[in-house]
Every structure is written in structure tokens, then in C-alpha cells.
Amino acid sequence: MIREISGGKSLQLLKGDITKVPVDAIVNAANKELAGGGGVDGAIHAAGGPSLMQELDSIRASRGGCPVGSAVVTAAGTLPARFVFHAVGPIWQGGTHGEPELLASAYRACLKLADEKAVDYLSFPSISTGAFGYPVDQASSIAIHEVIQHLSRPDSRVRKVLFVLFDDRTMKAWSESLRILVPA
Ligand code: APR
Fold first, then answer.
1. Of 164, 32, 43, which Cα lies nearest the Cα of 105?
2. Are 177 and 144 contacting, i.e. CB atoms less than 8 angstroms apart?
3. Set 41, 120, 167, 168: catalytic member
4. Which of 27, 67, 144, 170 is the most exposed place for a label (fewest CB within 10 A)?
């Protein structure tokens, strides 16, 4: 499912494994300790090799980690990309602890990093909707909204944003949000 947003810039949903799709930068759904884990974080570290964690070790040593709602960048090791943006989404606590703004902020941080690093083609997983428990219908609306806002800006460098969704349930929820926000 693909939608043109403006001036040849587009947004696409794809079902699959984010570590297998060549792009300029891959977004990881990390934690604020930058400690690695399961889910997409585990898959990205497994496919990217130990250099990712070595870089994160030095970021942790200098900055202590990565606050919720922000992101840090490393090289991509053996992944088919130049960079990995390790973004930290919020843990769902019922929706009354600032989760929507923190999730939007995590997506915005990655889009800003993409512009800074001259990234044309960026892929995202469904941040926070696995171990962190964020309802996927709400999370997908927030993510799509933020990406549309960014791609609509004439000065945005990013040309294409790909959301790589791992299972049918997630793909279905994202497809529904995209249909609502950007009717064909
Ligand atoms: N490609 C794309 N998506 C994937 C992949 C993959 N290879 N593997 C898992 N996913 C999907 C999950 O199915 C889910 O839809 O990524 C989405 C996000 O789930 P999590 O990886 O659990 O991420 P999140 O909810 O943000 O939780 C982050 O989990 O293991 C940790 O270190 C990570 O502590 C952090 C927490």
C-alpha cells in the first residue's frame, strides 16, 4: 500500500522483516538504556552485528542512554543501510502519561535525524506496539500523521518512508489508519 504525499514524496506500508529491506536508514524500536532486547531490537542487532552495540556502549558511556521520545544514530554494520536510528517509544500506561506526545516525538526525532544525515529513504517498524504495549490502531495514526506532516514540508530531505510491519494484525491496523488519514 503506497501513497504519494507531495512532490514525489511517498509513504508505503509493507509486511515483512525490516532487516531485509535495503534503505538508507533503518529505525530501531529501542529502550532508554540502549541495552538491546527482543523484538525488532533483537533482530536488528542480530542482523547488524556487534558493531551496533559497541557504538551504543560509547553513547551510553557519554550520555547515559536515550530519553523516551528521542533517538540516537549508529552505523548499520552488516544491515542493508547506512545508518540505524535507535528510537525510544513510550511504554503504554493507559494513555494518560503523555504517551501520544512521546510516541510522536520519537517519530519526529527520526525524521529530523534523516534530514540531518541526508537520508532519502527511511524505514520504520511499528514503534512501541510490541513489548511496550501501545495499541496499534492509535500508534499507527500518530506515526502516519507525523510522517505526512514531515513529508509535506518543502524543505524535508526524506523522499520515501517505508513502514515495515511484521504480522497480519499489525499490517491490518496500519492499513486501516492509512485509509482513514490518506484516502486513495
Ligand atoms: N521487522 C519488523 N518488525 C518487527 C520485527 C522485524 N524483524 N520483529 C518484530 N517486529 C515488530 C513487532 O511484531 C511489533 O509489531 O516490531 C513491533 C514493535 O515491537 P517490539 O520490537 O516489541 O518494540 P516495542 O514495543 O517498541 O518495545 C521495545 O522491546 O525488546 C525490546 O529492546 C526493546 O526494550 C525494548 C522494547
1. 32
2. yes
3. 41
4. 67
Q: Could you tell me the distance, in angstroms and rounded to a whole number, from the CA of residue 107 to the centre of ligand 1?
A: 15
Q: What per-residue confidence (pLDDT) applies to 6?
A: 84
Q: How far is the CA of 16 from the centre of ligand 1 (A)?
A: 13
Q: Distances in Å between the alpha carbon of 139 and those of 64, 112, 152, 163?
A: 27, 19, 20, 12
**Tens digits of per-residue pLDDT, 37-58?**
999 999 999 999 999 999 999 9
The answer, yes or no, to whether residue 161 has pLDDT greater than 90, is yes
Say yes or no: CB of residue 128 within 6 Å of ligand 1: yes
Question: For position 183, what pLDDT does the model report?
Answer: 83
User: Does the C-beta of 17 come closer than 6 Å to ligand 1?
Assistant: yes
* Pairwise CA distance, residues 140 & 126, whole Å: 7
Check whether 7 has a pLDDT greater than 90: no
174 contacts 140 by C-beta, under 8 angstroms: yes
Q: Is the CB of 28 under 6 A from ligand 1?
A: no
* pLDDT > 90? residue 86: yes
41 among known catalytic residues: yes
